[in-house]
Amino acid sequence: MQTVKLLIVDDDEDDFLLTKELLSEINQNYQLEWAPTFEKGLSLLGENSHDLCLMDYKLGAQDGIALLRQAHDAGFSGPIILLTGIHRAEVDIQALEAGAVDYLVKSGLSAEQLARSIRYALARNEVEKERVERLKAEAENRAKSEFLAHLSHELRTPLSAILGFTELLINKKTDLESLAHLHIVHRNGKHLLGLLNDVLDLSKIEAGKLELEKQTVHLSSFLCDIYFLMRGAAIDKNLRLRVEAPEPLPAVIYTDPMRLRQILLNLIGNAIKFTNDGEVVLHIQRLQEQNQEKIAFTVSDTGIGISANVLELIFEPFVQSTDTYAHPRAGTGLGLTISKMLVARLGGEIHVTSEVGKGSKFEFTIDPGDLAHAESELLRLDFDLANEKSTVVPRFNGRVLVVDDLRDIRLLIGHFVALTGLEVMYANNGEEVLQLIDAEMAQGRTFDLVLMDIHMPVMNGHEAAKKLRAKGFNPPLVALTAAHMKGDMDRCYESGFSSYLGKPVDQARLYECMANFLPSAPSGLQDEKKSNGQYILVVEDNLDALHAMAALLGLLGWQTITARDAATALVKVKEYSPAFLLLDINLPDMNGYVLAAQIRSTLPDARIILASGEELDKVRAGEAGVNDFILKPVSLEQLQDVLQ
Questions:
Q1: Whether the Cβ atoms of residue 190 and residue 159 lie closer than 8 Å to each other
Q2: Which of 64, 87, 109 is the last residue of a domain?
Q3: pLDDT tens digits, one per residue of 453-483
Q4: Per the structure, how many domains does the chain have?
Q5: DSSP type of residue 106
Q6: Which of 208, 193, 196 is nearest to 145 (CA)?
Q7: Rounded Cα gap, residues 64 and 68, in angstroms
Q8: What is the DSSP letter of 505?
Q9: What is the pLDDT of residues 70-88, one digit of tens each?
Q10: Among 144, 259, 524, 584, which one is least packed by beta carbons within 10 Å?
Q11: Cα–Cα distances in Å, from 47 out to 40, 128, 466?
């Protein structure tokens, strides 16, 4: 029987002895401590070493109500029962308001009454403790989830720029040596993203926040991508990498391709890492497991193997072998832990067997969905495909608004969109979106698609989407977010979004998403569009500055015409009729203000922007019809803002 530590605060020793006698009649072990004064009672309550306190109402010159009010501030967390000689309703109310859990009259008090009051008080206190602990745990989980979402956003966002702009350069078809270097940067950026994902994924899985995105997966092309992703690492170590499936496999399965890829890349990567000679083999087959058809993947190697003591801990988090697995793993030590959790989420199990000096074998299964009507085919992988493939850029018609508070991401996504021939505009936050769309609608224009970040200052994406839908804005809204938490997708749809893309934004997936909402454009439309006024004319006499300006504008998706003097500029104005002009003020043959005035008489609707290292003469600029001004040196951000 558990001992209950009981504190009795009573200045009358006879009353204390009577209470002690009543307690002795109760079938419970009590460890009693007596405080005969107000001060002694307050001191012992502050130690918080008792389960319950019985407190007399009268304590010399002071009363128990005052002590009650101070007890919890002093640190006592247990229940307090007030004892009094005479029942008075107002004292009862005061006692309960001050924090007492019960109020008992000494006269006529029986052992049964006292035992029941103590029992109920302790039971209620336990329930309250459990409630507080539950609320505390829920608050901690919410805080953890919010921290993970914030961390995910803050770390993925700069990686979006690194990976995106590298991909942009890869698609520019540069020379072979530079292309090889760019692929190295891109590959290592992906590796860094993988390490980040390891830490975030483990936390999300443990918190029940990992969301699967199951979809149709074409097995042959999926495995072909896996092979090409890992082939380089195998070649670097003079290893053979084989993918084999001796029996027909379903042509299509239904699973989360990103998570399946994550498992396979981790297992194959480890196999290559810890194999010095021989080969690494990925074997795929169908099998029956508990009356259900599964797909089994086996990754085997001829490496150094895993010792028995490490094998027992291989799926534990933060375990990195420095023993038989020759050298410490590069990474977080979370890969196998996450792989095991992901396999379970995909409806399967994972097992490992190994022999030191001979190699290891990791086998796992997944639920491939309903295969009753799935076609089967022998696995055929086209190993002659190029290792690195550029994204095919489709052509679309329409206007797109790109919204992100970070300039690099805004420009990157805008560049991807502009490559398709679409007209692009930008906004920094939800409030700007509402203002811009109102302004466009007032002039009879709208957007065919809005790509909008979720986490933004001033007004976030959820709030902006709700307000847009409430105003009757019907075009599709696509959410962009770096926080891949469970419920994110549902919340986006509830806010009014039409679709959802995770960050870092993959160029190919962006185009797939856009294709769901935008009409395709016939070949050559963009060239026609440019010739109808979407060129930008840059006039600058300094050759280096001219090249830099043209390159920056190219990143923004513009096709530039250049001139180094006013005379050439006027000729090109007549030839191309550009919609935008960026003019240096100090030209060798004509002042920029004068040139602007002459261009305005020819192109009344063109937008003319002056660039100079000196402050603008606002009076002369107004007389010349100048729309805007940029102070040199010109940055990408300045150009983007002024061209909006």
A1: no
A2: 109
A3: 998 899 999 999 999 999 999 999 999 986 5
A4: 3
A5: S
A6: 208
A7: 6
A8: P
A9: 888 888 988 999 888 777 7
A10: 524
A11: 11, 20, 53
d(CA 287, CA 405): 50
Q: Which domain holds residue 617?
A: 525-643
Q: Which of 344, 148, 320, 334 is nearest to 259 (CA)?
A: 344
In a domain, 438, yes or no: no
| Any domain includes 418 | no
Tell whether 159 is covered by a domain.
no
Q: Are 317 and 202 in contact, with CB atoms under 8 Å apart? A: yes
CATH number for the domain spanning 89: value is: 3.40.50.2300
Compute the distance between CA of residue 281 and CA of residue 284 in angstroms, rounded to an integer: 10
The whole-angstrom separation of Cα 275 and Cα 287 is 28
DSSP output for 283-334: EEEEEEETTEEEEEEEEEE-S----HHHHTTTTSTT----SSS-SPPSS-S-
Are 103 and 230 within one domain?
no
> Is 365 found in the same domain as 225?
yes
CATH at 251: 3.30.565.10
- Rounded distance, CA 433 to CA 450, Å? 9
Instruction: Give the least confident one: 32-36, 410-414, 440-444, 614-618.
Output: 614-618
Q: Is residue 119 part of a domain?
A: no
Q: What contacts 379, CB < 8 A, 6 or more positions away? A: 219, 220, 223, 243, 244, 245, 249, 284
What pLDDT, in 10s, does the model give residues 353-377?
Answer: 999 989 999 999 999 998 888 888 8
Out of 342, 358, 377, pick the residue that ends a domain: 377
Residue 425, Ramachandran bin (φ over 0: left; ψ between -120 and 50: alpha; else beta):
beta
On whether both 251 and 366 belong to a single domain, the answer is yes
User: How many Å from the N-terminal Cα to the C-terminal Cα in the chain?
Assistant: 77
> Within this chain, do residues 87 and 226 fall inside the same structural domain, yes or no?
no
Residue whose structure tokens are 């300039």: 407
Q: 559 in helix, strand or coil?
A: coil
